Amino acid sequence: MTDDKTLYMVVPCYNEEEVLHETAKRLKEKYTSLRQRGLISEESRVVFVNDGSKDKTWSIIQELHAADPKFFSGINLARNSGHQNAVLAGLMTVKDICSMAITMDADLQDDINAIDAMIEKYHEGNQVVYGVRSARKTDTFFKKFTAEGFYKFMKVMGADVVYNHADFRLMSRRVLQELANYREVNLFLRGLVPLIGFQSCNVYYERAERFAGESKYPLKKMLAFAINGITSFSTKPLKLITSVGFIMSIISVIAIIWALVVKIAGHSELGWSSTMCAIWFIGGLQLLALGIIGEYVGKIYAEVKQRPRFIVADFINEEK
Prior knowledge:
The protein is α/β, with parallel strands linked by helices. It contains ten helices and eight strands.
């Protein structure tokens, strides 16, 4: 049985060889400080999750573990499973050997110094502590506009997400045990964790520039991530199709009545442009509706197959 101060940091890694040594160094310094202050126990660990990296990431994780087996642990996934699944793999692996877990990306953009406040909030009784960006000074205008628009749009769509929060968060062992009961394949942790409930709070921090390497979330992946989040936690797009269909039906009835009146009055003329515009407009709406429905059908297809979300090939961890 773990005590109330055993912290496991879960750090997903995909091709992070350029930054991993620096991340490990800073986390070790932070853990030393936290232990001295009595906020965490000596059994606390840092767990790096290698998400099918193609570089030397896993080799570096093994080296870190060999050099300090009582501090650094590692999980090696059998293949690239995606960021969200890598985070979940780490959490589900450590849920029974920690009292709290913090997830943080390896690129050092999340403020390590915010960990102190997170743990303090946990000891005050909070089961979930969200790391929330206080500003977006390091973002380009396009990145800031699209990111903030994403959170606002998610709210409009009915998804309960924490504004300007990504995947930097603390969760208690109790929350992790409840998270294990959620079996969906289409994983969106930013919406799933608030759904669990329990007492929670926010810790605000300023996000830094990436220390080294390249972003693993280009625009294409960000759009796919946003679509996954919306369709995983909201049926409003489907309801919107119904509303648009109803409105278009009313407009069509009005157009038919108008056409008949004009025909009876003898003022009808051949209108190629208006006809083609109507055809393209209705056709576009139909294809959009089919696309939205297809997105939900695709999710159902993935869920009913119940394939594993991740496969852990290796877990290196010093026994307590």
